[in-house]
Design a protein that fits this description.
Length: 506
Amino acid sequence: RKLRWAFRLGYLSVLGGIALVGYNVYMDRHPEPQVEPDPSKKTLVILGTGWGSISLLKRLDTENYNVVVISPRNYFLFTPLLPSCTTGTVEHRSIMEPVRTILRQKKGRVTFYEAEASSIDPERKVVRIFDTSEIKGSTTETEVPYDMLVIGVGAENATFGIPGVREHSCFLKEIGDAQKIRKRIMDCVETAMFKDQSPEEIDRLLHMVVVGGGPTGVEFAGELQDFFQEDIKKLVPEIADRFRVTLIEALPNVLPMFSRQLIEYTERSFKEEKINIHTKTVVKKVNEKSVEAEVTRPDGTKETIVFPYGLLVWATGNAVRPVVRDLMSKIPAQKNSRRGLAVNEYLVVQGTRDIWAIGDCAVAGYAPTAQVAAQEGTFLARLFNNMAKTEALEEKIRHLSSSLNLEPGNSAEISQEIAELERKLRRIKDVKPFQYSHQGSLAYIGSEKAVADITWFNGNVAAAGSLTFLFWRSAYVSMCFSMRNKLLVINDWLKSKVFGRDLSRE
Ligand code: FAD
Ligand code: NAI
């Protein structure tokens, strides 16, 4: 009988789960009518549609402001699964969520402009924007005024001015980068198979070089080796012994933000997977078909090595975007800041009024990660919701105070109401400064293995291997933006496992 009850309970929870998913999907497709923007309210301009800005928008009570969002990307990109798109383990549209869908779920209507901000004038409180898309109308450049401005434009790829990087390598930051890499991997394979190709040329074409041993470079190298082992090798057996992946890192080890044991585990695992790691090796120049790097030998001597390559992926971290650099140059208080806009503990850009910065473009003392950007966005949403509530309460108190003179008969009741409102106001105004809560770091390292440094009851737990890989997958699928994203990603994983990855070159 117990078994029958357990079965019924399980059946009911599955039905409940399906009903909940169905309800969410239905509500997403049939949202409530929205409150129209009110011109008497403050204009809040948000730059960017990445981790920081979308987390802010998700929790912001948009009916309290005239919200304007400006970004050249009309979608949110779930970056943690971007390396998986380079090999087709996950399809690129599965990790994109259209901004229009996100904004339609808000109570108050939000204006969206697909454009790039080129400059910010903090004196006149305007943002200059221009259309970066292929199709242009008669107006391609204009200004947007703001009362409050949030800068969440992220960062661009660091090249350190090394010659040839921009011309010859692929980055891994945007969807277009992942598509370009996917296409090039197969192009290298097919070109290596071209009739009468020389052995040296085959070796060059099948040499995939990754520069930067941070999590982007490591995750990409792992995905690439999986692609080769699980699919390319089976379908193009002629290249089985010639395909090589090399990871070049300037520091003495890869993944410097992870604990020692996880670094060693990753390096061991890469060795088993036959991914060559060259540490203490700094790339100095990139040519069309080779990179030149300086390696420091154990005795301290330096030597230049040339790596011929077919595909070169450049993953050496972040640099400040031009719009941010331009704003920094206008603010004397930002003179000493190098890595982005220095902000105070409420994320206000130092030396400005009514400008906040979040995510990779802000320097608040934390690593440039999605986790930090998302928490900063959530913090600002709470702050702005509170500010709107404060203003509404102050207005109500002002109104009641003036009624005190007009209605002396009700003065006791009114005074009590004012006191109650003032208590509420004090509670709302008491917003604590931003504090980041680190949940841990996760990275995929290939061969269905992952490494994780998890924060657990004020301590740290380091884990690695196949179980950690399952944890990595479940953590990221649960973090995907929408139900649609979650289902698509799970479907992609099943598809690539059952049928293999798609080798066609689009
Ligand atoms: P972004 O998410 O980069 O968003 C910036 C937005 O601003 C974009 O919409 C962009 O189009 C827009 N924009 C750019 N220029 C302008 C302009 N001039 N005007 C207006 N808008 C503009 N972090 C983790 O914590 N965990 C991970 O697993 C992880 N994996 C990653 C994997 C990869 C491959 C990469 C590249 C990064 C990964 N990160 C990860 C880091 C994480 O993606 C970033 O820290 C995060 O995206 C920063 O959020 P953001 O909002 O500051 O910027
Ligand atoms: P990174 O800054 O973390 O690593 C870049 C690496 O490139 C550094 O180790 C640096 O020493 C090396 N490098 C720089 N110049 C070089 C040169 N000329 N030659 C050889 N090596 C060189 O950059 P990454 O990996 O792009 O990450 C950026 C941010 O995004 C980081 O904060 C990271 O934590 C976050 N991120 C997190 C992920 C995760 O948690 N799984 C995944 C991807 C990114």
